[in-house]
Design goal:
67% helix; 0% strand; mainly alpha
Length: 249
């Protein structure tokens, strides 16, 4: 379902969204926000009608543009109020692989301690880490991930580094970072694999750690691998105490 909103209507929506964000704390949700909530409810029903996961993703790709004005206005002028529409859009942008947009929302949401909608039992940071890792893995498996998306996966790891989350989720994201970077930075990848193992013994990275450790060892210069030969003992110098003897006799 494609957004049919006219340019004029989109302009009005943007103005209403900006006004709503500015006054939400004092005035509460206004007509523009209520209309967006109704639109979201309709969009969720449309998604439920799809059985195919891929079809759901493609539909979300068409739907998210309708909420862009609200997201922009919230991120620029928002007061940090709980907003389930915003966090839902964050999740949809992750689902469609638009990690940069999702993480812009995530940083705002984490700064203001926003919660995920009630249907989600996980914390927002946990959702970000796990969903980014899962989507990135799927894209990498099908060779559809690009450099920008990889950079955003690293960004997700950074912004969630201090957040409380299940060890298995942190391990999952660390493993994904390692798999995405081992071809270009094996040292960094190894560090992430070791981090994954630290948080979850069953994270599936032991083979990757052994492989990279051997690769890095084999890549060391030969001179660094050879033991340093002991230096021969230097002969005593003429003015050493042993040769001078006792001059006081």
């Amino acid at each position: 379902m494609t957004d049919k909103t006219s340019p004029a209507a989109r302009h009005r929506q943007k103005a209403l969204s900006q006004k709503e964000v500015t006054n939400i704390a004092a005035a509460g949700p206004n007509h523009a926000y209520r209309m967006l909530q109704l639109k979201l409810r309709e969009d969720k029903q449309a998604l439920k009608s799809k059985q195919s996961i891929q079809a759901k993703i493609e539909l979300k790709r068409d739907l998210v543009d309708h909420y862009d004005e609200w997201i922009d206005a919230t991120l620029s002028a928002g007061k940090g109020d709980q907003d389930n529409l915003l966090t839902t859009m964050m999740l949809w942008h992750i689902d469609i692989g638009n990690f940069g947009r999702a993480l812009d929302v995530a940083e705002y949401a984490m700064k203001h301690n926003l919660k995920m909608p009630d249907a989600h039992q996980r914390t927002l940071a946990t959702v970000v880490a796990e969903e980014i890792a899962d989507t990135a893995k799927k894209l990498a498996t099908s060779n559809e991930i690009d450099d920008e998306q990889i950079a955003q996966v690293l960004r997700a790891s950074t912004i969630t580094a201090d957040a409380d989350m299940p060890d298995q989720v942190r391990a999952k994201l660390s493993r994904q970072v390692g798999e995405l970077t081992e071809a270009v930075n094996p040292v960094f990848a190894l560090d992430n694999f070791q981090n994954a193992l630290k948080f979850d013994e069953n994270s599936g990275v032991k083979g990757s750690i052994k492989r990279l450790e051997k690769q890095l060892k084999d890549a060391q210069p030969e001179t660094q691998l050879k033991p340093v030969a002991p230096q021969p003992e230097q002969p005593n110098q003429p003015n050493s105490p042993e040769l001078l003897g006792d001059n006081n006799s």
